[in-house]
Amino acid sequence: MTEAPIKILVVDDEPELESLIRMEFRKKIRKKEFEFLFAAHGAEALGHIEAGTDLDVILCDLNMPVMDGLTLLSHLSPKKLILKSIVVSAYGDMRNIRSAMNLGAFDFVTKPIEFEDLETTIFKAFKEISQLKEAQRTKAQLQQTTQHLSLAEAQSEQLQELDALKTRLFTNFSHEFRTPLTIIKGMAEQIQEHPHKWTEPGSSMIRRNADYLLHLVNQILDLRKIEAGKLALQAKAGNLVFLARYAFESFHSLAASKDILLSFESQADELWGIFDEAKLLQIFSNLLSNAIKYTPIGGQVSCRCVWDIEGDTARLQIQVSDTGIGIPEDQLPHIFEQFYQAHGETEIQGTGIGLALTQELINLMEGTIEVMSKEGEGSSFAVQLPIPLAAEQQPTNAQIQVAHKDSKPVIHIDPDIEDGLPSLLIVEDNPDIQQYLIACLENRYRLRLANDGQAGIDKALEEIPDIIVSDVMMPRKDGFELCRTLKTDERTSHIPIILLTAKVDIDSKLEGLGLGADAYLSKPFDKGELLIRLEKLIDVRRMLQARYQSAQPLAPSTHPITQKQDAFIERFRQILMDNIDDTAFHVPEMCEAIAMSRSSLHRKVKALTGLSTTHFMQEIRLQRSNELLKNLDLSIADIAYMSGFSTPVYFSKRYKAKYGVSPRAGREQI
Length: 670
Ligand code: ADP
Prior knowledge:
Blueprint: E1 6-11, H1 16-24, H2 26-30, E2 34-39, H3 42-50, E3 57-61, H4 69-75, E4 84-90, H5 94-102, E5 107-111, H6 115-193, H7 195-227, E6 236-239, H8 240-249, H9 252-257, E7 261-266, E8 272-275, H10 277-293, E9 300-310, E10 313-322, H11 354-364, E11 368-374, E12 378-388, H12 415-418, E13 423-427, H13 431-441, E14 446-450, H14 453-463, E15 467-471, H15 479-488, E16 497-501, H16 503-510, E17 519-522, H17 527-549, H18 560-578, H19 587-594, H20 598-609, H21 613-631, H22 636-642, H23 648-659, H24 663-669
Parallel strand pairs: 1-2, 1-3, 3-4, 4-5, 7-9, 13-14, 13-15, 15-16, 16-17
Antiparallel strand pairs: 6-8, 9-10, 10-12, 11-12
Helix pairs in contact: 3-4, 6-7, 7-11, 8-10, 8-13, 10-11, 14-15, 22-23
The protein binds adenosine-5'-diphosphate.
Adenosine-5'-diphosphate (ADP) is lined by residues 286, 290-291, 294, 322, 324-327, 335, 340-343, 350-356, 379.
């Protein structure tokens, strides 16, 4: 039979019934087939049921005090379907029996109870219960299976989505990586085959394209870092309008190449706040470059900055709008997703990372971004950012005045700070970008400014700066022209030049021209990037100085920069060596022989060797005296004259200053 006893609740007000039942069913009770509980009326029974007592069957009288059987039945919730009630009623009380059956009773027995009949009825009820329980179990199993199935379905959908995402990622990246990689590969081959022709232009192309790849990879890494909560804000005080204007102006040549009209509007010229400059620049750049990218020739792109001040925070709104191709309505909700491209397979290149990263950066700054767009009419991205106001409105040491659209930035020279700094010439026609450059470079370089390519060339020749940062698109002469002129002029060929380019300049002109710029920065660049580039070029200068300072004949070099400058230093040496015993051959004579003005020569020699012209000439003379001391058995006085020193005393003094011993002792050491 059953393993667990059938649990029966007897509800009856007759006290004798309990002993009667216990006696009649004693065997079943002993064998643990039946288990009885007793209640004197409906309410007590209901108490048991509601308390969750484990029951299978209720044996219920109809006429009882407190709560009768019918009321009890009506209280049994239809949910308790498994609990079966058997009503006990007087024979012939058909009306009540019917009511009980209508209230869900399973069966009835009549009084006086026939216990055999009751037993059969109980088993019948229990059979029904078992079937119901079995059905319930099957149903639960079925439900579970369905759940598993739908989970599996959801998972497979997710997998499919992930798969689509991966495909999208790979397709986008293959496209985006292909061009720079092709250039890098091609250039490496060219350099191998024709090193003379291609080493210089090829290596800058390789560097530039590798930079672009690095930029793409960095974008992805930034995204991952933000997601992992590992990208922190580096907020500092600054004028936000100034940064916005700079970012905006950086897109001038890109816009010009598509004949797109740019307009910038700001509530005021200044908003001094605390913000992460590099990240804000990235936000501006992504939105502006998209706006230009997705706007056809002749369209318009505008940027608007407005804000409300609330306590010590500015509620900034940046709006970047375009009259471009717009975004289909059904795609709008997705454009901030990673690797999503609304326009599918188009000619327009992209990775689908820009907006995802932009949104994450904005989240990091606790701001929001919204997009409104109509297909065929244009798009508008609105960014809201809380910007804590800066305590002070503070131009720092350079005392830069905020550039209004038409006013020129001013560099205030502070001799105390400037002394000993390398000199840097900025060649740039746009006041906003001039302004940004000045702000980045103040106090690190001695700054000079030229407003176009021609002025840049003139100033470079006049001042021989240590380094030049030049725009490409400029009136009168452009950056390429400046590069060509200065790199082919011996007086200035050593000066490292950083060209500021828009991507469009690279595409249209730079490739293959071999103009010999030392580095390229694509606009808008951030301060850190610029400073690193400059540092690297200053390092090259240090390397050159170390090479030339010894004034010894030079070992051949394969480095293109070195080769060019070696030629100059060798010429300088040769001229002096041709006149080495002429004690009257000084700087003026050298200037004449080498065909350079005194100041140009001074700056060039200083840049290359770290020494003044006089000092460098003296180094060469001392070098010569050592050779003579070693090889010829001549008097010190003769050697002094033969190396071009005007008196033996002066020679001995200089010799001792350099080598720490007298020429005589020096000769013994050699
Ligand atoms: P992408 O590298 O493809 O430009 P983004 O993440 O920057 O990636 O942008 C995602 C998608 O949103 C783009 O592929 C493009 O379809 C759409 N989109 C973004 N900005 C604009 C815009 N200004 N006009 C039209 N479509 C845009």
